[in-house]
Structures are given as C-alpha cells and as structure tokens.
Fold each of these.
Amino acid sequence: MPYLSSTPLLAVFATVCAVLVIKAQILGAITAANRGRLKQFINEEDATWLGGQHVEADGEQGQRLLRAHRNDLENLLPFFIGGMLYLQSGANSAVGMGYFGLFLAARMLHTFAYMHRKPMLRRNTYTLGWLVTIVMSAHAAGALLLS
Amino acid sequence: MPYLSSTPLLAVFATVCAVLVIKAQILGAITAANRGRLKQFINEEDATWLGGQHVEADGEQGQRLLRAHRNDLENLLPFFIGGMLYLQSGANSAVGMGYFGLFLAARMLHTFAYMHRKPMLRRNTYTLGWLVTIVMSAHAAGALLLS
Amino acid sequence: MPYLSSTPLLAVFATVCAVLVIKAQILGAITAANRGRLKQFINEEDATWLGGQHVEADGEQGQRLLRAHRNDLENLLPFFIGGMLYLQSGANSAVGMGYFGLFLAARMLHTFAYMHRKPMLRRNTYTLGWLVTIVMSAHAAGALLLS
C-alpha cells in the first residue's frame, strides 16, 4: 500500500511529533488543573459549578502556562508542515534526522526553561527551533521544486 | 499514483477533519461578526472605518468565542498530526475509525457545551478528545517504530 | 518510493506552505524583537535579565503583531489540513493551483493590510482566504468520499 511508513526517517518524525504533541497536551491539561487548584475560573459557569471565583484573566502562573502552551503550538504547526514537506521531498535522510532531533531537543528545553524561568536558555532554544523550521522548510521547497 | 486515497479510513479522516476545520472557521467568522454587531473593535482603524468604539479587549461573549476557537485549534492541530501519523502507520483500521469518530463527537459537543455554558459536558468532552489524541499518537508512534 | 513528490501540484503546495510558514515565523520573531526594543517584557525574568520593565501585557504595536501572527496560524492550520486532503483526493490539479495561489495572495495581502492599518483590505483578504479553505476542504472531502 502507498504508505510512507517504510522509511526510518518517517518513524523518527512520527516519534518526535508524538512526543511534542503529548507534551503540548500535557501543558494544556496543567492549565486546566491549575485553574481548579486555585479555584479561579475565566468562565462564569465554572465558578458557579465548582464553587470558585470568576476572574477576568488567569493569574501569573496560569498566564505563563498559556504562553508556554501557545508558544509550543505556534512552533509545532510550522515544524509539522515543514517536516511533512521534507518527507515528501525525498531530500537527504541523515540531514532530516538532524533537523528533527535538533527541533525535539530545542522544544523540550524551551518548556523546561519557560517553567524554570531561565530567560537565556528560553531565548536560545526558541531561536534554535525557529531556525531549524525555516531552514528545513526552505530545503524541502527547494528539493520539491528541483525534483 | 501514490495517494493514500484508496482506503476508507482516509475518507473518514478527511471528512472528520473537513467538518472540524469548517466548524473552527465558522467560530472565527462569528467572532468577527460579533465585533461588527456590537460596534466594538480591538483595531483602532476598524473603529474609525465602521464608526464604532475602540476597545482594549473583546467583551465577555467575544472572549468566550475566542476561547472556544482557540481551544478548537489547540486540539485540532495535535489530532491532525496524530491522525496523519496513524494513517501512515498502517495500524488497525477499525480502531482508527473509532478514534476519529470519538474525536469528532467530542469536539462537536465541546463547542455546544462552550456556547451553552454547560461546564461538566465541556470538561468531559475536552478530556475525551484529549485522551483520544494522546492514545492515538502513542499507538501510531508505536506501530511506526515496530514496523 | 511512495512519495507524492512527482506532481507539480505538490510542489506548488509545498512552496505556498513554506512561504507562509516563514512569514508566520518572521512575525513571531518581530514580536520578540519588538519587546526587546521597547524593553517591556511580559515574563518577569526577562525584565530582570535584560534590564527592562515587567508589564502585564504587550503594548498596542505588540498586541497588533500578536493578533496578526495568531490570525495567520488560525488560518494556516485549516488551509494546510484542507490542502493535504485535497492532494490526497486526487481532485483536479488546475483547480488546486487556483486554490493555493489565491490563498497565498490573500494571506500575504492580509499581513500587509494588518501592518499598514487598512481595514477594508484586511477584511476582504481574510474573507477570501477563509472562503478558499472552506470550498477546498469541502471539495476534497467530496472527492475522497466519492472515490
């Protein structure tokens, strides 16, 4: 059947994506759990239901979780698109493994840095993931146009 | 040609994604329509253009729409990535149909619950969609690594 | 190997996605650069590190960048999903090129309109991209269900 599944590069890509999807989902769940723990809710009906307080916006830690989560998704979407294109382009497999591995490391460390308030590490890991996505997308588009 | 299109699982996945994409797009459009109806705009030039008021942030109903929309996209992205991986993995088709159907039902009900302020249903449908995505992504990554 | 890479439609899709991914990434980077320039940071540790001010929320220009970036991602995700489905569906290639070209033009002009505060152009290009995504997704789902 016409699947891409026979290549090791796809297996690596799938694993990287699955790990990052699960990490992002966990950040989303922690946000919800954090609201429940503080008993502060941005939806009025939640406050009524769970006997908490209705607030205009999440507190500092809640906002931080939202930002970390949003930053994840903002970067995972372009990476996933670029990575799918890279897989389709048939470009060099070892280089692809390098892109995927670097991105995974960058985003895991980025979440660590966000939660532990390490601004320099956060900036550097953000920048690394950003660069990987740009270079990989341009590489994939080039390979597809030349093929 | 090397398309995936011959499998019924892909047709189901495509339909689920198309329905959820269109639902998310409609939420986005309602947000814009809501601003026009209230004549309250967060971009100054819109207020000038349409003779309305320039506000710092959307009102309660507008914020609710934004949250429902954002929640949709936050969950659709991981589902789409996990689903594509699942299709590529060649894992069991009936199980895949179950994942896709559950996710569709969960997200349709989630939007209903958000708009009708039913917090328990909203929490349960969010959790169901969340679990489907995690289990399906892990399932796909496992199948691809073992293949 | 079972890649989609042999079709010109895929090459066009890849290029459109790569350009839009890179544009969205650049908007994200400008947001960060803007915070550094103003020395106003929403994370306390950044303010300490870079000797700036800790603020609750970004200023007007920062919020505008965030909104333009978020609007990009909110629309790129459904387009990418719909476009992948369209590629898989094997539907008409010339029509597909039309969808992809229209979407690219609409989203480039949308960012221009957002940054230059042209509300009518912004609304029209948003609506055009929105319509392309809906029509293309429905078209793809129809073609996949009938195939």
Amino acid sequence: MKRGRRPGDAGTREAIVAAARTRFAAHGYARSRIRDIAADAGVDPALVHYFFGTKAGLFAAAMALPFRPAEVLGPLLEEGLDGLGERLVRRLLGIWDAPESREPLVALARSVTGHDPAAATMRGFVESEIAGRIARALPAPDARLRASLVGSQVIGLVLARYVIGLAPLAKADHDELVAAVGPTLQRYLTGDLR
Amino acid sequence: MKRGRRPGDAGTREAIVAAARTRFAAHGYARSRIRDIAADAGVDPALVHYFFGTKAGLFAAAMALPFRPAEVLGPLLEEGLDGLGERLVRRLLGIWDAPESREPLVALARSVTGHDPAAATMRGFVESEIAGRIARALPAPDARLRASLVGSQVIGLVLARYVIGLAPLAKADHDELVAAVGPTLQRYLTGDLR
C-alpha cells in the first residue's frame, strides 16, 4: 500500500494518472469514480482533486487531451448562443494550430477511431463532457441531436485538417474557416433543422 | 513470371489486387500506374482494365472500399448542383447503413487515421477521386476549398455515426440527417462562404 502519499511525493501525480488510465479503459468514463482511482493509486481522493480538479480534468490528463473541454467550452457557452458557432471554430483552431497540440490531437483522433478500449472510453467522455455540455446549454428539445451534429463537423474538421491533411482545407487560414464552418455549427446549435 | 494469365485463371484477380496494394502503399495513388501494377502481377494491363475498369476501381477493390466513388458521385453530379447536398447525404447513408458496408467502412476510417502508408495513399485517392471530382463540378474559383469542406462534414458524419457511435446522431433516421446535414453540404458546394 502506498496510502499516505503527499502532493510533493515524486511520482504521485503519475501514479494517479496511470491508475486513471487503467480504470477508465476497464470501466468507461461514466462508471469510473475518483474514489476508486484514488484507492488504486494508494492516495486520498482529496489529492486527486488537488491535482486534477474534476473527473473531467483527470480524464483530460490521463488521455493527454490537447485541451480541457470544460475550460474551453465553459467560457464560450457563458457568452451565450449568439455567434457561438464562429467563436467555437475560432477558439478550437487557436488551440489546435499550436505546435504543441498537434501530436496529442492526432493521437486522440487515432485512439477514438482505434480498436482499443480507449475508443469506448473516449466516446463516453465526448458524450458527457463535450456533447452533453453543449446540449445542456441549448433550449431545444432536440438539443442532444444538435450537439452531436456539432460534434460530427468538429470531428470532421480535425480529421480533414490535422490527421488526413486534406488540401486546401488543411492550409486554410482561420478567418476563412471561421466564415465557412462557423455558420454550419451555428445552424446545428440554433437554426432550423426542419 | 506469371505472364500469360487469363481472366479465368484462379487467383489472377487476387494477384492483381495484392500487387496494387503493395504499389499504392509504396508509391501513393497518383504515382502508381496500371501498367506497373500489371507488370508486378505478371499480367497484361488489359486484364486489369477488364477486372477493375479504371485505376480508381482497382484502388477501391485493393482498399476494400465500401463503394466506388465514381459510381456514386458520377450520377449524382450529373443531376446538377441543385439539391446535391441532400441527395449526397441520402445516397451515402443508403450505402453505409447496409450491414455489409459497416466493416469495410470502419476499416477505411481506421486506415485513413492510422500510421501506416495506407493513410497517405488514401489521402491521395480522396483528393483526386472524391474531392477532385466534386471540385471539377463546381464553377467557383474556390471549388477545391468547397470540396474539402464537404469532405470534412462527410468524414465527420462517418466517424460520429459509424465509428464512434455518437448518440443520438448514430441512431437518427435518414430523413432527419438529410434535413440536418444536406443544407450544410449544399452551402459548402454552392452557398455564400464570404
């Protein structure tokens, strides 16, 4: 037992991340609890919160996500639904075009499409923390469908621009893509889908 | 040397497919020639055309594509640009929702996002035979950007619906998705992108 570790202990953070990866892969996002991950790592649950905040933050660290969805989506959604499509595209491109994001983003795309348990875990996370968060901000009864449509275009943008490198979209500048893709997201969020 | 094989020879078709896979992977789509693949397989180039029609048809067979882009896109594009977005979504869903398409479609998505040379080969094929074919049907000077935007939403739809299984998009019926995604593609094809 390694119980009794403290924030300063070498390797404590890494032990938590490793335990989280294992548990998320085995049980999925929704059924993995902070307290169980803490027990697996031999630490107090408070230490997990100290390092990672929420379960979503721990997941982002465990999967080496190129961004923490809550930190990106939260402020955007708080600014309201007007122009959200364009703001979302601009913010995501700003994050993803940073050189240090490239490798984790491509790795993430591969893990989502891959065979391993990470794919199912990631699906649970995307549904609850990304699509779910967007859906909760929408008043429409079809909010979940709208959120998953947003997801489909965002995923396609990541694949086309960063993974496949589909020309000329892969080299288009931000203004061009915000103008092209922003209205698509806005329509999925608040427009008429018939 | 196996030169002199005839259409009826057992394994001739398979030998051509195997040679095509190897050459496409090594040289990419654009630089692989029918005559070289035929030579690799020890057959006359006419036999390759007899079995597969064009290089695109051979590629579709070699990569076990769930559809032949030319056979799907050709007739759709011939009907004109009016309503093309909705027709495209409906046609693709009709093909991809067939049970026999599922496995090759998911395999295709994985190969495109994967590490192996198939990813680069597939990119060349998508650019020339899918995006290129759409771009040639568009009058606008930004036809290639428009075609790659269509590609991004179509790729995202495949990933969200068939690979990730993002609810509720994964279970939405065709009419619902045609109404939601069709106008997106139509705007990318012919609308105002500013």
